[in-house]
Amino acid sequence: MSISYRNKFKVEQTKISHKTKHGTQIKLAKIEMIQALACYIIALLCIIGGVTLIIMGAAGVIEVGVELKGMKATLLNLSPGAFLFSVGMGVAWLGRYRFEHIQ
Fold it and tell me: What is the DSSP letter of 20?
């Protein structure tokens, strides 16, 4: 059984031809690795900070909402620790990187 994913959600991806110079490919890979590592470090700090706030019992509410023409919708209503943890997970998800060779 084969499943086709036509509208697959792709985060960040570089497609590079195999004909590109080897030195250029190495430089691109290094730059993208540094970018991904920076995102992971930021995500780790947010996650550790969020867990710390949850363990310490930080009270309060962070509301993220949208207001348009008199209508108001609350998207998130979280404690500071849970919010920071969620931000860290989002940064980790969006910071991942894939490097792909194409023909």
Answer: S
Tokens of 97: 């990187």
User: What's the per-residue H, E or C state across 21-42?
Assistant: CHHHHHHHHHHHHHHHHHHHHH
What is the distance between the alpha carbons of residues 79 and 81, in angstroms, rounded to a whole number? 6
- Which long-range contacts does 62-68 make (Cβ < 8 Å, 24+ apart)? none
pLDDT band at 15 (very low <50, low <70, confident <90, very high): confident
CB contact at 8 A, 81 and 59: no
Least confident of 9-23, 39-53, 57-71, 73-87: 9-23
Chain mean position to CA 83: 14
Question: Cα Rg for the chain, rounded, in angstroms?
Answer: 20
